Amino acid sequence: MSGKTLNLTLSVWRQPGPDARGAFMTYPANGIPEDASFLEMLDIVNEGLIEDGELPIEFPHDCREGICGTCGVMINGRAHGQEKGTATCQLHMRKFADGDTIVIEPWRATAFPVVRDLVVDRSPLDKIIEAGGFISAPTGTAPDANETPIPKEVADSAMDAAACIGCGACVAACPNSAAQLFTSAKVWHLNSLPQGQSERYRRAQNMVETMEQFFGSCTNHGECTEACPKEIPQDFIAYLNRDYMKSLVANRKLAGQR
Amino acid sequence: MAAPTAAQTTPGANSATRPLRPSLRRLPFPLNLYQTAVGKKWVMAATGLALLGFVLFHLFGNIKLYIGVIEHDGEPIYDVDLYAEGLRELATPIFPRTWLLWLLRFGLIGAFVLHIHAAVSLTRLNVSTNRPYESKRDWLAANFASRSMRYTGVIVLLYLIFHLADLTWGWIPGYDWERGEVQANVVNSMSNPVVAIVYIVANVMLAVHIFHGTYSMFQSLGINSPQYNYIRRHLARALAAIILIGNVSFPIAVLTNVIEYDPSLLG
User: Is A11 in contact with A25 (CB distance < 8 Å)?
Assistant: First the structure.
């Protein structure tokens, strides 16, 4: 790990607790290796803070390989920083220049209250997943391969949707704090596949209506896709809207036939 | 009694898991379409499409201002005056005079009311759910049109009221408004440079509103097919350009005497 090092200035949001007032604090971040990830840079700064007897900066992190969706902060006004299709943990310090000032702020949304410093409570996203319910999966012996034929395009689309790691960057980037991209990815990943058809319209309706108890409405800016570390396309939002409007008719028909 | 959990004892820690809004009391079928934000956006898109159709037909009618005087039943008449009278006599053998026009007008008024009500309630929702950033945001995809919809919308509404007061009701002082004399009223009104500038600025705002509205409409209605999605931006640009160039041309043409009103031509 011998390489260039960077000297940076951090402007970090510090907030002792959910109900406390927060403010930006400035910290020097000197001798940061170029190959460090953004979270490792914060680790190095925190070690310095602990040595000085200060409380370390709390930030969300877990797998640090871009697949768990735990990390995520606003870096210089962009969710997950300037690197497209990359979570904060996969953003490397070589993308910054020596002497840069980096402004770090937690996700902002009424539904995402700050827990401490850069950590926010994203449990409303879990409520949307819960509202999605189950899929009817037959139990018994393992099904034969290729028993359920799925066109390649459909499988690809479902896989693109399933790539969502639930980090909340879409909500953070949205001027309305809407969770449409998250919900649409979760809905489309099951609604596009044959295995998800039995509960298709119930799922669409329940997830949208739960989403709207917490989040704003989509106005089609497209900021969410730009922020998304998995580059989930806007198209899924249109599919969600379509399935939701159909669900209002379909679910009513089903109820009438009971 | 179960022991209190950590979430219950830590103040504020459980606040996010409580919904910001209660769950819906479900209304009967056609009304439930308008109960949720997704449904309201669908209604906004559908009414926006109707209003867009009106704006395009309005432009089509206005182009007759350029045609000037024509011969009708052996009498010289301004083509746009004849067109305006024709609107009142739409489908006259079937409907009495002005009935179909009023039917269309009620449809438009309904579309306006729904479009504006949905816009106001969605804006209120989005203001309540969004907590602005303390640091400067760096916008990547949102453009001027998408971020200014609520402002351009208000400007277009105020302009609409002015436009009706000016040319439909004749309430704006400065010239002698005459019912049915469309060419005369347009020329007399817009030859005032202040009024002409109001028309030009308002129609630029209308074009900006239509640019984002046309693109957004497809997403809200759920019309999406990756193979053809590139058309949506082109269509938004084309419609905004047609409305912009078409509508702004009229006040400019009046100021530069391309569109004129000359009573001596009517004999």
Answer: yes
Instruction: Choose one of A116, A135, A151: the last residue of a domain.
Output: A116
Domain that holds residue A165: 122-256
Answer yes or no: do A98 and A144 share one domain: no
In a domain, B75, yes or no: no
Nearest CA to A245 among A195, A187, A193? A187
Phi-psi region of A233 (alpha: psi -120 to 50; beta: other; left: phi over 0): beta
Nearest to A41 by CA among A23, A57, A65: A57
Closest CA to A197 of A256, A144, A129, A150: A150
Do both A171 and A240 map to the same domain? yes
**What number is the ipTM of this complex?**
0.90
- Decide if A7 contacts A32 (C-beta within 8 A): yes
Asked if B41 contacts B126 with a C-beta cutoff of 8 angstroms, the reply is: no
**pLDDT at site B2:** 45
Rounded Cα gap, residues B57 and B80, in angstroms = 13
Residues of A in contact with B22 (CB under 8 A): 213
Chain A, chain B: beta-carbon pairs less than 8 Å apart: 178
Q: How far does B231 lie from chain A, in Å, by closest CA? A: 14
Percent of chain B with pLDDT over 70: 93
Q: How far is CA A255 from each of CA A207, A248, A251, A258, B164, rounded to the nearest angstrom?
A: 18, 11, 6, 5, 48
Domain that holds residue B219: 35-68+114-130+139-262
pLDDT digits (tens, 9 = 90+) for A133-148: 888 877 888 888 888 8
pLDDT at A177 over 60: yes
The domain boundary residue, chosen from A87, A116, A145: A116
Shortest distance, CA B141 to any CA of chain A (angstroms)? 5
Q: Are residues A109 and A129 in the same domain?
A: no
Same domain flag for A199 and A127: yes
Q: How far apart are CA A67 and CA A149, in angstroms?
A: 28
In 3-state terms, what secondary structure has residue A239? helix
Angle at B85 between CA B82 and CA B87, to 5 degrees: 115
Q: What is the pTM of this model?
A: 0.91
**Cβ <8 Å between B135 and A24:** yes
- Do both A86 and A166 map to the same domain? no
